[in-house]
Amino acid sequence: MEHVESLTKYVTHFVDQLVFSGIEHVVISPGSRSTPLAMTLAEHSEMNHWVHLDERSAAFFALGIAKEQHKPVALVCTSGTAAANYYPAIVEAYYSRVPLLVLTADRPHELRDTGAPQAIDQTDMFGSYVRWYQDLAVPGEGLHMYARRQAARAVEEAVGNHPGPVHLNLPFREPLIPDFSLNGLWREGVKPIPRAFSGKPGLQEEVLEELFQRLNRYERGVIVVGPQADEELAPYVTTLAARLGVPILADPLSQLRAGAHDKSNIIENYDALLKSERIQGLIEPDYILRFGAMPVSKAYLKWVKKIKTHADHFIVDTYKSYREPAGITAQFIWSDPAILCSRLSSFFKEGSYETDWLELWHKLNSTAKNQMLSEPEDQMNEGHAVVYLSEALPDNSNLFVGNSMPIRDVDSFFMSTPKSVKVLANRGANGIDGVLSAALGSSVSGRRTTLLLGDLSFYHDFNGMLIAKHKGLPLTIVVINNNGGGIFSYLPQVNHPDHFEELFGTPLDLDFSKIVEMYGGVHRKAENWGEYKNALAESYGSEGLFVVEVITNREDHVAFHKAKWQSIEESITTWSEDEC
């Protein structure tokens, strides 16, 4: 069998199996050695292919698609350092449990370690950050079913017991051009490999009974829902909270603050409340039942460490893992969260259990909310930028949030809403790289997407906007421009002015309008609240890329937040002393 025929059968059966196994999108970065894969993926009628020139941005773009759609996405690049540019997104995918199928083309084995051009050691190059790795055989006669088996297993490994990235390294010999006119390609003459059956993990009845008994003996419980992606969890966990008569501390990435489900037990302002030691004294719980990862709130983390010996801690996770950075003694429960909530709720009386404990939390949350949402001064600030953004967000849309200060401001100022808003972020590794590209990936589904991020994060990934220009992807970007790294103003480094600005403040002093114009987008600069609201309204009436630049003062940021926290503490201290 000639080389071209064996190559063509190998790659067509490999790609067809990917499609059969559920891969719908592939992000391709151009290159020579990846030609067989790129052309075959583009040839398959059921595969959506996206061409992205920058491999680092391409990987985050694929991450965004997979994160928003909860489906595996493939990545393809050529040999050499192209694959190395995938590394940051693969690390993020690993920690945030997002399925990616990383396909790196390579030189054949005889050209490795010989000084051949564009030939680096790609074997197992992503190490422990992928769930599974294989260095595949070079295409040869009769290996098309081998290629199918590898493709099928790669998808299963990516979406299986513990979702995440997998890496297949595919060596190809020249010539690299497949011939799609040959017979025996795609699904012709073969039976595709079926998907494996799998189920969601649950607990035995006696274990549920024991958990019920432990929770039922206490009155002052708290449910915490940290960052998690299951949009079906909300009605189950809110039902459980109602029957227990306990509050739910809902992280902005919990998927609980927005939607049509019951929010009567939702507490959005716990971060601000827990900033105060006086308030902490009012709300020490008997137990904490946590779903999802550790919340964004640093105040919550400190609080948990403080009460670790006074409360029972239960951590629910779908997969066997130990996501507990507070160093507390915790009871891990490895079970599907929605199934656990549903079955555990059946042990309690139906309806909503009203308690003095729950009433206290409601009053605290209401007081905090009134202070956080109080009318802003004329000067622009990050907090009310989030408030007005949440009011303007379209129903059935995505809000993608950058790391550093934006996610913390969303935690503080994004309140409960009946609108369907999916809140996303790259909180696996918490980096500022690739956020713009990930947000663009999340817009592929057709849901209107808004990205909120800082000026440094915007600068870090602005070349990701090229695919928005080429594909006409609709994205509203709100850039909080305080000319530098605002989060460092909360850290001890700020007390060292001789080095602070150069090493940590890092002002950019850039005119972003020129960058946005280069990528065919619309740019609006907002220097007052009227301009900001008008720009948001204009963006949601437009198609394509629209950037709203909000000008704030980094030096005022800390004082603004501290004033809010102080006003909350004073208000609550006043009425709590009056009641006593």
TrEMBL record:
Gene3D superfamilies named in the record: 3.40.50.970, TPP-binding domain
Catalysed reactions, semicolon-separated: isochorismate + 2-oxoglutarate + H(+) = 5-enolpyruvoyl-6-hydroxy-2-succinyl-cyclohex-3-ene-1-carboxylate + CO2
Keyword Nucleotidyltransferase in record: no
Species this chain originates from: Halobacillus halophilus (strain ATCC 35676 / DSM 2266 / JCM 20832 / KCTC 3685 / LMG 17431 / NBRC 102448 / NCIMB 2269)
MF annotations from Gene Ontology: 2-succinyl-5-enolpyruvyl-6-hydroxy-3-cyclohexene-1-carboxylic-acid synthase activity; magnesium ion binding; manganese ion binding; thiamine pyrophosphate binding
Origin organism lineage: Bacteria, Bacillati, Bacillota, Bacilli, Bacillales
Record family assignment: Belongs to the TPP enzyme family. MenD subfamily.
HAMAP family, sorted: MenD
Assembly description: Homodimer.
Thiamine pyrophosphate enzyme N-terminal TPP-binding domain ranges (all copies): 11-125
Cofactor: Mg(2+); Mn(2+); thiamine diphosphate
Protein name: 2-succinyl-5-enolpyruvyl-6-hydroxy-3-cyclohexene-1-carboxylate synthase
Annotated Menaquinone biosynthesis protein MenD middle domain residues: 216-401
Cofactor note: Binds 1 thiamine pyrophosphate per subunit.
Protein EC: 2.2.1.9
PANTHER family: 2-SUCCINYL-5-ENOLPYRUVYL-6-HYDROXY-3-CYCLOHEXENE-1-CARBOXYLATE SYNTHASE, PROTEIN PHYLLO, CHLOROPLASTIC
